[in-house]
Amino acid sequence: MIFKVKAPSMDSGEDFNPVEIERQSLDYKDCSKRFNEVSRDYSKQYAHIYSARLNTFRNILGPLINKKWSNKYKILKLCDLREKGEPCVIIGTLFKLQELKPSILKELSDQLEIIPQPARTHFVHETDTVVLEDELQRIKLSGLCINTDEIVTGVVVAILGSEDEDGIFSIQDICWSGCNLQKPLPESTSDRFVVLMSGINLASKTADHLFSLNLFLEWISGFCGTSEYQEEISKVVRVIIAGGVYAKHSNDIMLSEADVIAASEQVDSFCAAVSATAPLDLMPGCKDPVGIMLPQKPFHYCLFPKAVEYKSFNRVSNPYECDIGGLTCLGSSGEPVKDIMRYSKLDNEIEVMKKTLQWRHMAPTCPDTVPCIPCLDTDPFTMYNCPNIYFSGNAGEFSTELYNGEGGQKVRLVAVPDFCETKTIALINLANLECFSMTFC
User: Fold this and answer.
1) Bridge partners for 187 per DSSP
2) Among the listed residues 318, 310, 407, the one whose alpha carbon sits nearest the alpha carbon of residue 360
């Protein structure tokens, strides 16, 4: 789909003379405090974040269990399972045992005299199994209620069932956390748009996408079209770049210091040009010059001597959450979604994002297979509020869907395409959550 505005016609006699049009604006608040202020004590173990996650979701799942199964069944910890065949509810973290999962032993295969295996991009195997664990122990699961191919390690869930004579817990039913309550959409009588883009890849050795990037700059700056068309463009109230600023996620080559220095002037000039005409939120990605562990801190200000002169330029974290005109916008530059796709048979970004809403957690595979800060008391990736807009950057192609939760929640899901590959951005109308793509070529 394309951006629904009136395209300029050279034959219509419309006025192409420059006119002064003011950029529209909406109230904005950065809500990423939990990502920015997370404890960064690298001497701690990762058990703390799993413990914090489990404790948080015990509080979330308690009322949902009572609503779904009333008070018919006891809620037990694994160490309290005594009576075989007696139905009960257990709460724990799913752990997926995968034969193909990378390990340090395989990486040291030469030393161990094992034949090296070819590199893999997906690690799902028919022998994969799932166990449930809490602070003290784990138990094997059986039953058809859980599709092993569509879950990953790190999801906290409540399970109704009973332990059999072999010590395996037979599942009768499952209670997922689901979406939290959502603020109602603010009433709006006029269109206001947010631009989502990612993967501008300005440290690339090729320049194939730079022409399209310059077309985008001219478009967002209002240097094209009739005055009527420019008025439509003025309704873009914010631009969010979801990672991939210096290098693409799919690029296996890490940037050297020389690459960063060489590209920084171009990155700074681009950000300054956008910030001069519209508010810009710049998120880092896994190949950008910031720490690789999630949540990633914002870019250092010294990389942007020109752009930081604009109050409209915001260096933000990854993941990133903000409030735009009363709408909650949450997203990442794509690492959690891509990792879930590697360890499951979910092959579509939108389907993965639906699952994370069902799990109420945007990065369950942190810290198992995604580098993550060893947080102590909280898990910053828990979705405490149900977003109105939920995005994931650096996707292979543009896709979108309006997700409807069981409690009436409406979430606009957006897979933001890699601009370097697709020359495409996403636009969301904040008045009604309609979403369109626009290609520059």
Assistant:
1) none
2) 407
Tell me: pLDDT of 78 over 70. Answer: yes
Angle at 10 between CA 4 and CA 14, to 5 degrees: 80
Structure tokens at 17: 């003379």
Residues 401 and 407: beta-carbon distance below 8 Å:
no
Q: Tell me the C-alpha distance between 135 and 145, whole Å.
A: 24
Tell me which DSSP letter residue 439 carries: E
Residue 48: φ, ψ to 5°: -65, -40
- Pairing relationship of beta strands 313-315 and 280-283 according to DSSP bridges: parallel
Q: DSSP label at 372? A: B
Q: What is the DSSP letter of 299?
A: P
Q: Are 283 and 318 in contact (CB under 8 A)?
A: yes
In tens, the pLDDT along 390-403 reads 999 999 999 999 99
Cβ-Cβ contacts under 8 Å for 139 (sequence gap 6 or more): 78, 81, 90, 131, 132, 133, 163, 167, 168, 169
Cα 408-409-414 angle, rounded to 5 deg? 140
Q: What are the strands, taking DSSP E only, across 333-398?
A: 389-395
- CB atoms inside a 10 Å sphere around CB 199: 31
Backbone angles phi, psi at 91, to 5 degrees: -115, 130
pTM of the model: 0.92
CB 306, CB 319: distance < 8 Å: no
Separation of alpha carbons 46 and 83, rounded Å: 33
Residue-wise pLDDT for 101-130, tens only, equals 877 666 666 555 555 556 778 889 899 999
Taking the alpha carbons at both ends of the chain, their separation in whole angstroms is: 15
395's CB contacts (< 8 A; 6+ apart) are: 198, 334, 349, 415, 416, 417, 418
- Long-range own/partner contacts, residues 79-85 (CB < 8 A, 24 or more apart): 79/136, 79/137, 81/139, 81/163, 81/169, 84/162, 84/163, 84/164, 84/165, 85/162, 85/163, 85/164
User: What are the structure tokens assigned to 387, written together?
Assistant: 């977003």
Residue with tokens 């009136």: 6
Can you give the C-alpha Rg of the chain in angstroms? 24
82: region left, alpha or beta (phi > 0 left; psi from -120 to 50 alpha):
alpha
Mean pLDDT, residues 291-299: 94
Distance of CA 359 to the CA centre of its chain: 13
